[in-house]
Design goal:
- The chain is of the alpha+beta class.
- The chain has 16 helices and 23 strands.
- Strands 1-22-21-17-16-11-10 form a seven-stranded antiparallel β-sheet. Strands 9-4-3-13-12-2-23 form a seven-stranded antiparallel β-sheet. It has a three-stranded mixed β-sheet with strand order 18-19-20.
- Strand 3 (about 70-75) and strand 4 form a beta hairpin.
- The radius of gyration is 21 Å and the shape is globular.
- Residues about 325-335 have low confidence and may be disordered.
């Protein structure tokens, strides 16, 4: 973390409270799109559709129709939780022999796998897995939606037609990936000047530069008319698969047809006097459950004293994850490409939804026929064979997403985060703040945290007291860092909470675009 950063500057956000519904996401305009749906009488799942597609347009490097993820849904009328898995899968035609190890150390992106020749599992067409994000939004809408599907995509279509505004934050994000984007002519033409230069922004005034996205707008129009079927069994998906294969990848229409969103039985996670519901399967839900199970055996006198207990619980949970679910060690310095949003409507229905391309800008590859950035889900697999998460055709990707639902102390809440392996640490700690210390949502999000992501160190917010950091040093080596706007040393959470007739929303204080927006 830069030593040049100001030591006197303070950045904070305030919780949004309403008697109606609220949407909390990583982009204010996406939250506004969801809140407008609630104002029109929509359900939480309707707001999630609008919010999710606007995120895909305005944060195209984080998620999109060519990505995947998972979501938890709470239905107030039945008192039931539902898990929706719309993760990615490896194409059936993938050839493991196309990913030989280079012998050049570890890969330079999210995971410290043995490096593959030409980084084929990280960037480019061979890194693309079969997506299911669109179906992950449509499947719940088919069950519980109130407003027409096509109406809910209109805000995203309008934003794509208007183009993506390049402010200082967007310019920095694009600049971090400019070299990789330049390797794909279609991605370079969309995001870079003259196919090679990062886009500048004005230092002294609001700039008017916009990235035109007419092809994406056209594709969203198709999705508005035809729904997820256009991606999985329609011309849109066929065109996208053809683009990937033309660039040397494996994705085929059959892969898209075979990978659909599915409803699963959520993990039921009792914790002290609270109850959580989390994602099952190849997600971070089991790791969240294991961490809470370990934490329940600890005595938590106060939030500071809880930090060593959090470290012990997370270390134990990650040992189990890495041993049984895959050797997925992720580099804490690398940016992930994920977005999360949480929604509650005026009737108490909730959604905790995480969608992702995996790396920043995914495979750094654009499908010219659709205008969609492609995921690099193949990077989730270990390229070394014979391990729990080894690369193979048709396999389901192991995700780090961790949307959860919880109820405790007379309050119900939905939480989640972006940030790769850092997600579980953030979600578990915020959950504990709400349950063990009855914190307000604002205090829980603003409280200093640690990150324990499975390696041999603890990343600690330097705002923690010196004696807390010393206690953490007794468990593992500690790196103390400042919480900053960019890069994020910790995960980026979003949450909503209901108590009585009131509902609240909050986003990570250091997320420059993130905000909660109320229906009323």
């Amino acid at each position: 973390m830069s030593g040049s950063l100001s030591r006197t500057m303070e950045i904070r956000k305030h919780v949004v409270e309403t008697s109606g519904g609220v949407v909390a996401s990583q982009h204010r305009l996406a939250s506004e799109a969801g809140a407008e749906v609630l104002r029109a009488g929509g359900d939480a799942v309707d707001a999630a559709v609008a919010c999710g597609f606007v995120c895909a347009v305005l944060e195209p490097w984080m998620s999109g129709p060519a990505g995947g993820g998972a979501a938890m849904h709470w239905r107030a009328e039945t008192g039931e939780a539902h898990a929706v898995n719309f993760g990615m899968t490896a194409p059936a035609d993938l050839r493991v022999g196309d990913f030989p190890l280079s012998g050049e150390g570890v890969a330079g992106d999210l995971f410290p796998w043995d490096r593959v020749v030409e980084d084929r599992n990280v960037a480019g067409a061979k890194a693309v897995a079969a997506p299911a994000m669109v179906d992950g939004l449509e499947a719940p809408h088919r069950r519980w939606g109130r407003l027409p599907w096509a109406e809910l995509l209109k805000p995203a279509i309008d934003h794509a037609s208007a183009g993506l505004e390049v402010d200082w934050y967007a310019a920095l994000i694009i600049a971090t990936a400019a070299r990789d984007l330049a390797s794909d002519p279609d991605a370079a033409a969309l995001f870079l000047y003259d196919g090679r230069w990062p886009r500048p922004f004005s230092w002294s005034a609001a700039g008017e530069d916009r990235i035109a996205m007419p092809r994406m707008a056209d594709s969203l129009e198709v999705l508005a008319r035809e729904g997820a079927q256009a991606m999985h069994r329609g011309d849109l998906g066929e065109a996208m698969a053809r683009d990937v294969r033309d660039k040397g990848g494996y994705l085929a229409p059959a892969d898209l047809a075979g990978n659909r969103a599915r409803f699963e039985v959520p993990l039921r996670v009792p914790y002290r006097d609270a109850l959580f519901h989390a994602m099952p399967g190849l997600t971070a839900g089991p790791t969240f459950a294991a961490a809470l199970g370990a934490l329940e055996r600890e005595l938590l006198a106060d939030p500071d004293a809880a930090m060593p207990a959090y470290a012990r619980a997370l270390r134990a949970a990650y040992r189990a994850r890495l041993a049984g679910m895959g050797h997925d060690g992720e580099s804490p310095a690398a940016p992930g490409s994920t977005t999360h949003f949480s929604v509650v409507d005026r009737n108490g229905n909730m959604v905790a939804h995480t969608q992702t391309l995996l790396s920043i800008f995914g495979a750094r590859l654009l499908s010219p026929s659709t205008g969609f950035l492609m995921n690099n889900g193949i990077m989730w697999f270990d390229p070394v064979q014979g391990r729990p998460n080894s690369l193979g055709p048709g396999k389901e990707c192991l995700m780090n997403v961790c949307p959860v639902l919880g109820v405790a102390n007379g309050r119900r809440f939905a939480l989640g985060a972006s940030g790769g392996r850092k997600i579980v640490s953030a979600v578990m700690q915020i959950a504990s703040f709400l349950v063990d210390f009855d914190m307000s949502l604002e205090d829980a999000f603003s409280r200093p945290r640690i990150d324990v992501s499975g390696d041999e160190r603890i990343v600690a917010d330097e705002a923690l007291a010196t004696d807390v950091i010393d206690a953490l040093e007794g468990i593992a080596p500690v790196t103390a860092v400042r919480r900053s706007l960019l890069p994020y040393p910790f995960a980026c959470p979003e949450g909503v909470l209901e108590y009585g007739a009131k509902r609240q929303g909050m986003t990570e204080p250091m997320s420059a675009w993130g905000d909660a927006v109320a229906e009323l």
